[in-house]
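Researcher: Please generate the 3D structure of the following complex. Treat every line as part of one assembly.
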Amino acid sequence: MNLKNKRISDEDFFKEREEVLVGWPTGKEVDLQEAVDYLKKVPVEKNFAKVLENAKNAGITLAQPRAGVPLIDKHIELLNHLSKEGGADLLPSTIDAYSRLNRYAECQVGIDESIKAGRAMMNGFPAVNHGVKGCREVYESVDKPLQARHGTPDSRLLAEIIHAGGWTSNEGGGISYNVPYAKDVSIEKSLSDWMYCDRLVGFYAEQGIIINREPFGPLTGTLVPPSMAIVTGIIEALLAAEQGVKSITVGFGQCGNLVQDVAAIRALEELTEEYLKEYGYDDVVVTTVFHQWMGGFPEDEAKAFGVISFGSATAALAGATKVIVKTPHEAIGIPTKEANASGIKATKMVLNMLEGQRLPSSKALEAEIEMIKAETKCIMDKTFELGNGDLIVGTVKGFETGVIDIPFAPSKYNAGKIMPARDNNGAVRYFMTGNVPFTKDILDFNKAKLEERAKFEKREISFQMTIDDIFAVGKGKLIGRP
Amino acid sequence: MNLKNKRISDEDFFKEREEVLVGWPTGKEVDLQEAVDYLKKVPVEKNFAKVLENAKNAGITLAQPRAGVPLIDKHIELLNHLSKEGGADLLPSTIDAYSRLNRYAECQVGIDESIKAGRAMMNGFPAVNHGVKGCREVYESVDKPLQARHGTPDSRLLAEIIHAGGWTSNEGGGISYNVPYAKDVSIEKSLSDWMYCDRLVGFYAEQGIIINREPFGPLTGTLVPPSMAIVTGIIEALLAAEQGVKSITVGFGQCGNLVQDVAAIRALEELTEEYLKEYGYDDVVVTTVFHQWMGGFPEDEAKAFGVISFGSATAALAGATKVIVKTPHEAIGIPTKEANASGIKATKMVLNMLEGQRLPSSKALEAEIEMIKAETKCIMDKTFELGNGDLIVGTVKGFETGVIDIPFAPSKYNAGKIMPARDNNGAVRYFMTGNVPFTKDILDFNKAKLEERAKFEKREISFQMTIDDIFAVGKGKLIGRP
Amino acid sequence: MEKKKIVLGVIGSDCHAVGNKILDYSLTDAGFKVVNIGVLSPQEDFINAALETSAEAIFVSSLYGHGEIDCKGLREKCDEAGLNNILLYVGGNIVVGKQEWKDVEKRFLDMGFDRVYPPGTSAEKGISDLREDLGKRG
Amino acid sequence: MEKKKIVLGVIGSDCHAVGNKILDYSLTDAGFKVVNIGVLSPQEDFINAALETSAEAIFVSSLYGHGEIDCKGLREKCDEAGLNNILLYVGGNIVVGKQEWKDVEKRFLDMGFDRVYPPGTSAEKGISDLREDLGKRG
Ligand code: B12
Ligand code: B12
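Model: Done. Output below.
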């Protein structure tokens, strides 16, 4: 393979750019120099990177919802509701699923049908179709920083349009927006496309405009063991830094065991900073995001509030820079703006009550942090080795060989050989380790933890445990006991 | 004073009993021997003491709502809704405020007006007016153990009627159901009346029937420092044990700092067991109850869910045997049965997710436990000293001298000289210590903690801080910052 | 100028003491002379205190849900006692449960209260209304 | 007896893979031969798979909210392809947002689906309905 982890040259970038912008007519609206001027006028309180950095320094946790509807005026109404009524600190624009596959013509159908039906027929905001103009209209109508949240393997045109539109953050990455979201996209292709997105942000940084980038930590949202999620975060952070990104938010989706979750956020932050330093990226600001439970939710709204609030408490106790908020409608469908605001309100109440409080350092917490770090290091070392020191090559080979392996992912480029299950305290462990290159100590530890549970439940460790765990939270428990 | 902490003799008890039972016509319905036979048929799963003991052994936290309406059929409907739809593990019957003052004639007006108006005109279930028959009707129509929850300085007749009615737990105590609830009742009088209630439970115990008793830990629910609450719990536990009570649940109302709250529950449980052992009560089963935030609530229901869920998480992490559940209507009024059930559902979701998880032992937690124990010991020692070894005498004198002092209590027998405020992490500390006999170390510690906050907020430690703290949770924060 | 006198108390069998202490503090701070009869106060205590001190207004709190029963007839008793036109304010959680505020307010206005406050009203709101109402009377 | 064949997949641009894997496991476990075309599957893939394998039923999942657009015309295309009377089931989170279930069900029944499932339906429910419907056909 040709792809290497190296800053894209200006020549290559601008050549690629020409192809990208013709992907849809709105591409013509992007004029980089004009965009730089526009972005220079973004005030501090509407710059995603700055708001995150300030929160990190102040030691507080910000709340951000997910939200997006197809039509611009409705989308503005929605975001303002979430900001003013809900009290969101950061605003999203969730992009619809057609855009995520670059099917902009289908988006147009969705927009038209939504206008006709008088209700949203799409699950997000088709930013590319609305163009720079539409994105700026949204940006100018809200009072908080804006970020695109999606799941797009090839988000190059989207990135061009949203950033020129005044949106100062883009979620995603070559692994995290491919493997959980796509079936047929090669890792090499998505890494390459996200290199472009990162380079664009790097370009802006060179013009003095800091735009935030956020790898999608939860991946499939389904029992992803912390170390595997952290590996993808570190890799995407390193790749982004190489392209000149200066503000990176690494993320993790709640697993449900408080100590493990806090340990994961701590390990994620520390390791990302260490790796960035080790590879010579000294001026990157690293912040963290904790996602409230990303798996199947209970249908009952009161129970959903319980899940939401527990996630908020964990985020605060972990000291995450921000928390992504779920809603009481999660199990059923895209929330109304009221339901969405109520999720934010419950979240902020808990964050406010826990402001400044942290899970105290303890032997149990330290041990969990060490275990997560040790697991992560095994995978990272092997990945670098597979790439002969090149992280892109290593990552592609890592997936090929199953050294990196995301449970329940739809991608055919993912080995799908590891299988997670909860231990007797609800922490997520590796039940089948596939080709993940763990030391014997780590393998033994995972096994012992699961055997403890098996013994307690008087059954064998088996795939049935995993299935039971997948349904457990939806049914009102953390652990899927028989 | 004549009152001493000594088991009431049978003679005195039965003499007093005659006076008690004529307090209202329904007193005639109580026939102790018949009641013993009735209670012997209570199955394990409907015996409050047994269900608590089993939960303690299993290490799980049970959820109990508050609830009570004036009419029997509506009350039964309510309790069944909370049990079946809400998933409550233990059932309450909250007694109305007229009954609490023994104004049974006014209760009758309330019952009649409620029938006339077609809606509840009273804030609880008037158990004395409904008599043994009414209480049994309730008991027989539900599937979980029943407890009376009230705030009655003189609950003797109530105790007679509910226990004969099959209710196997009574909340309250000579301090905790006087000082926060009454203005003019002397401590001596309420201690004496609660001696009777405890003796009644002791009498049943001698017949082989274990009834649970629960001191009301939260007191005024308003910034009560942990050690002061724990002192009242220990005293009431010791007094109850002297009368032969064998199952005691000591309680504590959430303050909001996670580490302090967990420390409080741990200290409460350990100290109560130690004191009971020290004074020779070896066969008492001690369990704990954690009350979700007892102060002013936010009006917004989503925020209320946040408060409720955070309290549930604390209860679980502390390993409390049960948690008393608030509702999303708390700030406004007595909840509908639906709102009440939704509070339980949010609570149980969090308890289930945290089942088996505990706040790990840490230096911070141990230090907080030690501080609470040291403060408690100062007050307990002085109380015994004031009473020349007699706890009843000591308690009465303790209140007279302000050695025991409950903030914001309406009772004129309470000194009202201490004033609490939150420190910079939200833990409740003594800001004015009145006559509470703390060592210099403890005084310095409390002061230093509050000065940390004062410095952070750039203002003096003052009553304004306390006021700001009182309103803070209602306004969506824990600490009342300027 | 002499301080205006306000009778303050929590009516009926109601023991909620915290709001009462805060109102006392805030009214005093705002320059009123507060006659605080405290919690668990029958109607008679309010009236006697108002008579004894020639108060301009009575602040009734009811938190525990029995407000409707407890407040009934207070205006009439005030009139009988010769407390003509004394300002009667009521606040707290004055009815049982979450009810439509418009209806609740009307029921209490009909009972003869001059001002009726929903849950969570700040002391400041009561004080500014009081200043306005007293101002009108001169 | 030969195993009955069921085509299983997630329609449209939908990547939700977990339910699909569970359904595959449960249907297989229940004795069916599952032809799983996976996530992100266009209508054509369902039809081709059913034609190739002579399947008895098609299990369509749609989770992400575009179910209504994605499912439109599937029955007609089945008919055109000669898959007469093939059982069409659909489940998941098939519309955008929380809507009245009765209306949603009707819209999908009108589109020609034989069974329409609300969010959170267990695999077992689908399997027992399938047994019943196949039973009727003999
Ligand atoms: C995990 C998850 C994800 C993961 C998916 C990872 C993966 N590749 O699988 C990630 C994070 C990637 C994700 C992405 C998105 N998601 Co999503 N996701 C969920 C979530 C939380 C759980 C889904 C799940 O795995 N459940 C567990 C499995 C076992 O259950 P199941 O899928 O429901 O299937 C069961 C039953 O429904 C039934 N069933 C399913 N199909 C059929 C068919 C038949 C015939 C029968 C009988 C039964 C049946 O059987 C299964 C076994 O019991 C749900 C909400 C929830 N349920 O709590 C949202 C949800 C499905 N997602 C949603 C959305 C909108 C998205 C996104 C578009 C946007 C976003 N929020 O980022 C993208 C999708 C992009 C795309 N192209 O598809 C919405 C859909 C909204 C709607 N319909 O109105 C939901 C409902 C959340 C919400 N309330 O907003 N998601
Ligand atoms: C703390 C508390 C208690 C403590 C009280 C300790 C004490 N002695 O003070 C304890 C635990 C003992 C208690 C007991 C009971 N309580 Co209680 N309690 C509360 C709680 C949580 C907070 C009250 C409080 O202190 N707020 C802080 C103060 C500063 O605010 P405030 O009192 O509302 O006063 C402010 C304003 O309302 C306003 N205001 C008040 N009066 C007036 C008057 C005027 C003229 C004006 C202008 C303004 C004004 O000014 C104040 C300052 O801003 C409330 C619910 C809530 N608000 O969240 C329930 C609540 C008041 N209690 C309630 C009930 C039912 C009871 C009990 C009957 C039963 C029970 N649950 O155990 C017993 C009462 C027994 C009795 N005889 O009175 C109900 C009342 C229900 C209703 N009206 O429908 C409430 C609303 C809870 C609920 N939703 O069920 N309670």
